[in-house]
């Protein structure tokens, strides 16, 4: 990298250029669970800053990573070498049309801040799981949040985006302007450019009924089977997760059923949630009407040597055989977190080809995280591979935001063939030289 060119870039920015010898470098080099040592970090405070950073990356031939919140499970928002275009300072949240509940959000805004800002206007938006996850990465990958069954994926509510493309153009993408790019952005991750703002349609649902029900670990299989049956006929307003926590060598942890009813009507919420209180021996219950921001977890710090190994798949049906295989297989690990998320509802009514997120017919998403150090997790790869192989007859597809490895099988699962072909055409049009390669990858046809 040409240091004189980096100095010239720094002079032209509203933001800042950070090099390895700078005092603030260590503050910005790493992300949530991944260590990095990029050659240069550019913290952007405007669309023009992003344009200049993209131009610099292209001219210098730098491998390019884009960072919004820094929670990339696969570590794609930092690097060893290359450039990090950091859009976290672009964190504005504003209501642009109160009657249409339309808001504009910067890609660097964290979901906790977005939820709080919208709360002041009586609005909410299906978001990430934790308050510190950034808007940009989540929206481009999907967004399977707490109102996914009532309002769809987070990306289903995006109505427009401003994008800096690899050739330095600043484009508006929506259903009428650059519609091919707009299609690709919603589910195709950051393969086509750097989004500098999103326009989002929100919902007038400031409060939700939210909480947990716990059941004994010994009843896991029957609880999950009953949970799946309830969700098949549940109203769209009800979204639910099942969590099975690792034992770490101790006694098996209880099964936790999390519930979120998107609405303030107490009677309707109680009616919807009641069947989930009859799945077995209830050991605990804590459900109440809360402001939507309260559903977001406070993202704590993991032990310094941990690097979770995260994988997921979808299932069209959460049937008894699938549940038996899942529960029995999970019990063979003492450090495996297992989660099932209910889908369907509004998400399932969007046509599979309407966005680049194609997995619309799934009933549930299964997500697992092997907890511990990288070395320990890699040593246990054969056992983990066997576990997932046992589930293969029941599962398909994958969600890019919950994958730590992004291997060939995972990428084939994220993008079905027809979706990938269409994404590749968008890639050829907007990034034929693959400047934005640090993503769940779509490869330009000239490089295949």
Tell me what you see in this structure.
The chain has 448 residues and is α+β, with helices and mostly antiparallel strands. The chain is 28% helix and 21% strand. It has 14 helices and 16 strands. The strands form 3 sheets. Strands 13-10-12-11-15-16-14 form a 7-stranded antiparallel β-sheet. A 5-stranded antiparallel β-sheet has the order 5-6-9-7-8. Strand 5 and strand 6 (102-105) form a beta hairpin. Helix 1 (3-12) runs antiparallel to helix 3 (47-60) and helix 8 (220-232) packs antiparallel against helix 10 (320-330). The model has no long low-confidence stretch (mean pLDDT 96).
Outline of the structure:
With 448 residues, the chain is α+β, with helices and mostly antiparallel strands. The chain has helices at 3-12, 25-28, 47-60, 111-119, 135-141, 148-151, 179-185, 220-232, 266-273, 320-330, 374-379, 381-391, 408-414, 417-430; strands at 16-18, 40-43, 64-67, 83-86, 93-97, 102-105, 158-164, 170-174, 194-201, 207-215, 238-244, 255-261, 284-291, 309-315, 336-342, 364-370. The mean pLDDT is 96.
Kindly name the structural category: alpha+beta
Strand order, sheet with most strands:
13-10-12-11-15-16-14
How far is the N terminus from the C terminus? 27 Å
Helix content: 25-40%
Give the SSE string.
Answer: HEHEHEEEEHHHEEHEEHEEHEEHEEHHHH
Q: What is the typical, i.e. mean, pLDDT?
A: 96
What's the assembly state of these chains? single chain
Strand content: 15-25%
The major pleated sheet works out as: 7 strands, antiparallel
Categorize the overall geometry: globular
Count of strand segments: 16
Give the number of helices: 14
Radius of gyration: 22 Å
């Amino acid at each position: 990298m040409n240091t004189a060119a980096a100095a010239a870039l720094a002079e032209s920015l509203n933001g800042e250029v950070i090099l390895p010898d700078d005092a603030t470098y260590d503050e910005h080099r790493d992300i949530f669970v991944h260590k990095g040592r990029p050659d240069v970090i550019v913290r952007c405070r405007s669309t023009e800053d992003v344009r200049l950073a993209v131009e610099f990356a292209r001219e210098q031939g730098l491998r390019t990573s884009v960072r919004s919140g820094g929670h990339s499970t696969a570590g794609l928002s930092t690097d060893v070498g290359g450039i990090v275009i950091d859009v976290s300072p672009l964190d504005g949240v504003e209501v642009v049309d109160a009657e249409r509940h339309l808001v504009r959000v910067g890609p660097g805004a964290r979901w906790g801040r977005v939820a709080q800002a919208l709360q002041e206007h009586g609005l909410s938006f299906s978001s990430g799981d934790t308050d510190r996850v950034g808007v940009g990465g989540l929206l481009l990958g999907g967004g399977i949040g707490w109102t996914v069954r009532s309002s769809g994926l987070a990306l289903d509510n995006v109505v427009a985006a401003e994008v800096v493309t690899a050739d330095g153009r600043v484009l508006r993408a929506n259903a009428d302007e650059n519609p091919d790019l707009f299609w690709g952005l919603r589910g195709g991750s950051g393969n086509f450019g750097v989004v500098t703002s999103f326009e989002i349609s929100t919902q007038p649902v400031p409060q939700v009924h939210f909480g947990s029900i716990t059941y004994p670990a010994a009843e896991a299989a029957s609880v999950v089977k009953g949970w799946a049956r309830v969700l098949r006929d549940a109203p769209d307003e009800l979204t639910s997760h099942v969590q099975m926590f690792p034992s770490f060598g101790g006694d098996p942890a209880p099964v936790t059923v999390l519930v979120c009813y998107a609405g303030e009507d107490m009677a309707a919420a109680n009616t919807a949630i009641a069947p989930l209180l009859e799945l077995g021996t209830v050991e605990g219950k804590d459900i109440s009407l809360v402001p939507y921001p309260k559903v977001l977890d406070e993202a704590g710090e993991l032990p310094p040597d941990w690097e979770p190994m995260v994988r997921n798949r979808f299932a069209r049906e959460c049937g008894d055989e699938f549940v038996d295989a899942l529960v029995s297989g999970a019990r063979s690990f003492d450090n495996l977190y297992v989660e099932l998320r209910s889908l369907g509802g509004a998400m399932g009514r969007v046509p599979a080809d309407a966005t680049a997120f194609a997995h619309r017919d799934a009933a549930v998403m299964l997500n697992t995280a092997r907890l511990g150090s990288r070395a320990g997790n890699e040593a246990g790869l054969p056992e983990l591979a066997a576990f997932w192989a046992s589930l293969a007859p029941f599962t398909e597809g994958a969600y890019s935001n919950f994958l730590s490895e992004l291997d060939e099988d995972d990428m084939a699962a994220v993008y079905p063939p027809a979706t990938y072909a269409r994404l590749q055409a968008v890639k050829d049009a907007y990034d034929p030289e693959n400047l934005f390669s640090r993503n769940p990858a779509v490869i330009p046809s000239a490089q295949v």
